[in-house]
């Protein structure tokens, strides 16, 4: 419900009333700024959800056995959980650790999208969590650009000459995308000790780092991630300001600049107050935030426009759960 509230509030900025649009164009100079806030929400959601599973010291997450007990205690397990559960449990477990920490404005836009969507689809196949996974998939689509979704919107893909030799930008983009996938794969293999057992034809895995090493890493990267996100947002704001200056017509230029100023201010404000719940994952980093940010967050906390996220921090029902057994009888002696 918190995610639905925050995503719904961002939708007001991303898709405001038609009266703010000039005629019928579907694009405005500041759209990239407000859309950045959606990617920042996705990053906070997935990063925190991956981190809390390890900061909780839950033995089932650290032992990569949590999904083996998820079926009997999950929310309305689906038919797929009974049929494919054993085959998907191991993949989902280390996938949840590694993939959750990838998306958002601190990585190249496109590469994290397919793993995120795949993870959510696997969860949908094996459990019923209402709209949550569908909403997360929608947020993951924010990582795609026009090259991938333009044909859905009736826009032809841009032609790059004859296609050979490829442009420098396309080569660098492809290399960046491949390197991101390669880094994710190497990181998963190394830190989850993936080994192929040829005799048993199984893929074994184990957590190859300690709790102290993990908390040290988390303390090291939390504030730098905030800095990278700030630089990313600043870049989007500057590019949007330049696009406003390129709008034709003095009146429309002023109108675009006014919209840019309002939306950029709102996005920066949301980013600032979101740092408080985001840094809940690391106490020292939260204490280093400027006190004014804590005051701003306290003023709007009751509206839940920004929230902290950490799904399934600890697994309950590991040793089983109490069950209500209903019995009936026609004669009062034989009970079914």
From TrEMBL:
It is found in: Endoplasmic reticulum membrane. GO terms for cellular component: endoplasmic reticulum membrane. It is a multi-pass membrane protein. The lineage of its organism: Eukaryota, Metazoa, Chordata, Craniata, Vertebrata. Belongs to the lipase maturation factor family. Its main location: endoplasmic reticulum. Residues 1-149 form the Lipase maturation factor 1/2 N-terminal domain. GO terms for biological process: protein maturation. Keywords: Endoplasmic reticulum, Membrane, Transmembrane, Transmembrane helix. The chain crosses the membrane at residues 221-242, 254-281. Involved in the maturation of specific proteins in the endoplasmic reticulum. InterPro entries: LMF, LMF1/2_N. The gene is Lmf2. This is Lipase maturation factor. Pfam families: LMF1. The keyword Endoplasmic reticulum applies.
